[in-house]
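Structure tokens please, single chain.
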Amino acid sequence: MDDSPANTGNFTGPWKTTRTEKRCSERWSAEHEGEEPVPPMPYWKWEPSACRLEEADKAKFCRVMEGRKGLLFADDATLSQFDTLVVNAGAHRRSGGMKAYGLMMKSASESLTSSMRRLHGDNAILVVRNTVPGHGESFDRMFGGPVDLDTALDLVAKGPPMYKWTTFGDRNKLLEEAFEATHGGWTLLDAYSPTILRADFHASEEDGLHYCLPGPIDHWVVLLYNILLEKVKSDRRE
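Here you go.
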């Protein structure tokens, strides 16, 4: 797996908040009609100590990408016209357990690598994102901000058993091993490490998986932005 600003292997650094967001607070108040309204929530951002992450800047991004095109998978009629392919395997339950999941990742990684090489040679920017579980008892934590890893894992274990959220860490390892084995130049976007600590900001009392927007998954955009900037700059240096 190629090194990148989103794959430091060293998740350290402070969480900081400089502003607030009101959407989650408004949702909470709507679901608890008759109770005291709650104020806007702190909007937390992680500042890594092992690297520097640039904030997304639309103008700079457009200049650096210089007309590269992006494609969300499913538009196969125009597949060869785009430089960026996004494929979402999802985190839904499948039969066969971990062995079947590992085989699926192996097949997917080999097929995707082969297809991208055939279509774009070595010019494709290949990014694979790992998967983030939800949190049980998330609504009790909605206003608490980021938690430590032990607390996060405990909350993951308290989620609905049928979703098997506790297996996501091992599943992510299988994903990394599969894409690493292709030697295809894939870069890992590690969404798991920062987001598992965000037991706050979940979408509703009944939903411990999805998040309010703006919210924790905004950080994924920053990670992808920095990966693309670094990759394009590296290609130019070569």
